[in-house]
Amino acid sequence: xxxxxxxxxxxxxxxxxxxxxxxxxxxxxxxxxxxxxxxxxxxxxxxxxxxxxxxxxxxxxxxxxxxxxxxxxxxxxxxxxxxxxxxxxxxxxxxxxxxxxxxxxxxxxxxxxxx
Amino acid sequence: xxxxxxxxxxxxxxxxxxxxxxxxxxxxxxxxxxxxxxxxxxxxxxxxxxxxxxxxxxxxxxxxxxxxxxxxxxxxxxxxxxxxxxxxxxxxxxxxxxxxxxxxxxxxx
Lengths: 115, 109
Hints:
A: 115 residues, mainly beta, 11 strands
């Protein structure tokens, strides 16, 4: 079944730890995105990718980094987590070669808490 | 950049009631999406609706692109409709979505 997967769903870690949030999709989409959402607030784009070896920063400044080595995989890494990184991180993907131009589909999200 | 405003910010209904949520945007767009964020945080796609009207069960949406607004209608609301409803439009003709602040809907039994 075509879907977007994120792991872990919940993560509680201490300050200074390196973490990687996983995102993979079986939608066959070229484009992938990472959004950050604080509780009760709107989503903000932090990273996106048009395809393999393509990564761009979004509108919201983030200390995280991303990579796109495989079409279906778009992990996000924080080298040294801080309490200010506490948030929900949502991964999305889209396909431009359809009649629904850039319709984005979202994974279930990762709730990150940094103590 | 493009601005997206949603109203009302909060809405409380009794089960069975109908409601209309509004999304205004400040510039021309070539697509618009409505999402429902459930209590577990997942965003569910409701409609991709750059213009016109679409219906899916008890939900329907209308976008009037020339007047820069979209409406989401929920009829015969159920407690499972509770959550936050977001609209999102692309930034400046790009693929980057800009989200409104959402409408928090609470449906009481």
